[in-house]
Design brief:
This protein has about 100 residues and is mainly beta. The protein has no helices and 7 strands. A hairpin with a 2-residue loop joins strand 6 (about 75-85) and strand 7 (about 90-100).
Length: about 100
């Protein structure tokens, strides 16, 4: 993933869905390895699923959006690791962000 110095990019959207597509709470998001050269923002969002989605078509469900804002340095990389926890299920995800002077 790439981000220009000072730019915010979306890393992911995390949701918790059951078979009935009812409004489950968004999963807990744990930052297990924070960024060294930027900042993270977690916001509650409504995830709109498309009509052709295999899971809950045409539904809006509560989710957490994770964004990264690159610091002022360029020509460096940053890494982030998060875990999404919903009940007894935990899924980890790692991101490596290449910070550039300008977006290409």
């Amino acid at each position: 993933m790439k981000a220009a110095a000072g730019q915010e990019v979306q890393l992911g959207v995390y949701a918790n869905v059951n078979e009935a597509c009812s409004g489950l709470p968004a999963p807990d998001l744990r930052i297990t390895a924070p960024p060294a050269r930027g900042t993270l923002t977690v916001k509650l969002v409504a995830l709109s699923l498309k009509a052709d989605s295999k899971v809950c078509p045409d539904k809006k469900i509560p989710a957490l959006g994770l964004s990264y804002r690159a610091g002022p340095e360029s020509d460096v990389t940053d890494t982030v690791r998060v875990e999404a926890v919903a009940g007894s299920s935990t899924k980890g995800q790692s991101f490596t962000i290449a910070i550039t002077k300008h977006m290409e």
